[in-house]
Amino acid sequence: MATINESLVRSSNILERIGQRLKGVSPNVTFACAAVVGIGMTMAGAADMAHLSTELASQGVGLTDVATTLTGSDFEQVAQYVKNSFTFSNNLRGENIQGMGLAALAAAPLAAAAAGAMSRAGALIEYVGLKVKKPDVTPGPGGIKSGKGFAEKPQVSAVLSDPKGSLSRQVNNVARLHSEIQGLQTSFSKAGDMFERREIAVQIDQRVSELSKSGEGLRKIVITPEAQKEISNSPALQAVVKLGVEALRSVAKDADVGAVMKAGIEETANSIEPKSSESKPDPYASMALGS
Amino acid sequence: MSDSKQESNALTEFRENQAYLEKQIAILNSSNRTEDGAKLEVLLAQGSMCAAACVSHSDDTTLENDLSAYNQIIKELNI
């Protein structure tokens, strides 16, 4: 018999294996796998640090520090987001499996949430993944017109803003995409028959492809100077953030995810990788995730 | 996968596990073990992802083995 935490670790390992195997074959699936692995490992890690101990010990990090950091994560909120993102799977059927692309899109902010949960100091990361409230979704004619007919006013809890306004634009962009995704999801689940579902599934795939090529789904997240400072002062935070970034970088390395996403992940890795105490923190180091 | 194609045993077992986990999540949440309930939600999401990969790549038998391994995890789960 195994505990819930042990089961989460084992299940995460399976998903990680699947993600590795499907690299370059199904980038969307791979990315979605990385997202659920990130969440699973984070949640299991709060009470059972054994799985991370090897990596952390090699970096001279004490487990107590990391456990203290992770205990602050809001598990219920994370789980609710997971639930919302994977609603499609509750109706897992052969003909709707093309919703995989949709799930991958939904999983992009989920990955951000995973990174956020691992780095409590990076509150801004969490807010993109978790604080975009569920919009009042009303499918429009045709079902998947970009932004229209689904959520005229995406509700975003913009708790932090860039003085220059660029962050607000990014947030609005993410919120609009999020609304569109949820609109598609609703439209798909409410489709009257199999033929209608297939028609929508084809349109979903097209939309996913368009977003992937244009890089429109790029999430750009700014880490505040306060968060950066906290990360700089905490070897535990640095180590945990680094692990999360390395996981994303590993997934993106060989997958056909597009130059924009690859650049975004590289930028993320470079910006939040542990820096020496002598170096001055970049006040607006940015983190980007693509879909 | 078309409707006419027979579902794999692993997928059928996953559906049973899915129902089991959903029931356990409801029980945990109603008994103030919401943190454990949240973790099971994630465990379920991981299984769904695993099953979805299995269905979308039905020609890859290793994915079916992965789903079987996941099902085994649920069997051994002590809540």
Report on the architecture of this protein:
- Chain A is mainly α.
- Chain A has helices at 4-21, 27-47, 50-58, 63-71, 75-85, 100-118, 123-130, 166-189, 194-214, 225-233, 235-254, 259-272; strands at residues 219-222, 286-289.
- Chain A has one domain (4-216).
- Chain A has 12 helices and 2 strands.
- Chain A is globular.
- In chain B, 48% of the residues are buried.
- Chain B has helices spanning 9-30, 34-56, 61-75.
- Chain B has one domain (9-75).
- The model of chain B is unreliable at 1-5 (pLDDT under 50).
- In chain B, 76% of the residues lie in helices and 0% in strands.
- In chain B, helix 1 (9-30) packs parallel to helix 3 (61-75) and helix 2 (34-56) runs antiparallel to helix 3.
- The A-B interface holds A 1-5, 7-8, 10-12, 14-15, 17-18, 21-22, 25-26, 29, 32-33, 36-37, 39-40, 43-44, 75-76, 78-80, 82-83, 85-86, 89-90, 92, 94-95, 97, 100, 103, 194 and B 1-3, 5, 15, 18, 34-43, 45-53, 55-57, 60, 62-63, 66, 69-70, 73-74, 76-79.
